[in-house]
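User: I'm putting together notes for a lab meeting next week and I want to include a structural view of one of the chains we've been expressing. I don't have a solved structure, so I'd like a prediction I can at least talk through. The sequence is below, exactly as it appears in our construct file.
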Amino acid sequence: MKIIKKYWIIALAIIFCFLLGFILKGITTTKKIKTVYVKGDEIHDTIFKEKLVPYSIKQPQNPELPIKHDTLILQGGEKIVTMKVDTLAIISKYIQENSYRNVLFDNNNGKLVVGATVQYNELRKLNYDFTPIQKQTTITKEPLFIPHIDFSYNSFGYFGAGGGIFIKDLGINGKYITDFKKSGFEIGLGYKF
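Assistant: Thanks for the context. Below is the predicted structure for the 193-residue chain, given as structure tokens.
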């Protein structure tokens, strides 16, 4: 009778340790936070002159016009150099096509490259390439305490039953061992790789 009572006490102690570990598993967790920046799909678009209407038009009061040296004029034996507006330069600038391409920003939000084409004194084309970058944060919760139970039988005829708890990667366990003639208790330490 005394031996049966001893087995019950050991069995109840193992069950208690397992249940305690199971309860602690749900209460205590550790958090791992991982943040990565992921590039999204690049967006391209071009807006043509039909949709590029100026919202404000101003005529300058004192415009800067290109000036050129004019022919030499002799008056009374003197050489005089006159300056006049270079109409050819104005027409040349008016008809030439100017293309621009600039990176407006390249940061944690993404990269935006804008291009523009100007000709005949108007914005002919506006295009952009945008590559968004999204911040992704992953929070992983891992239990701090992980209970375990184990049963064993070996070639010497010994039967074992036990349980324990892992705290992160380090485990502590206890096991009752018996061949039903002799019995003992084993304490162990384990490590998860």
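A couple of points you could mention at the meeting. Residues 2-28+144-191 form one domain. Helices lie at 2-27, 87-95.

User: Perfect, that's what I needed.
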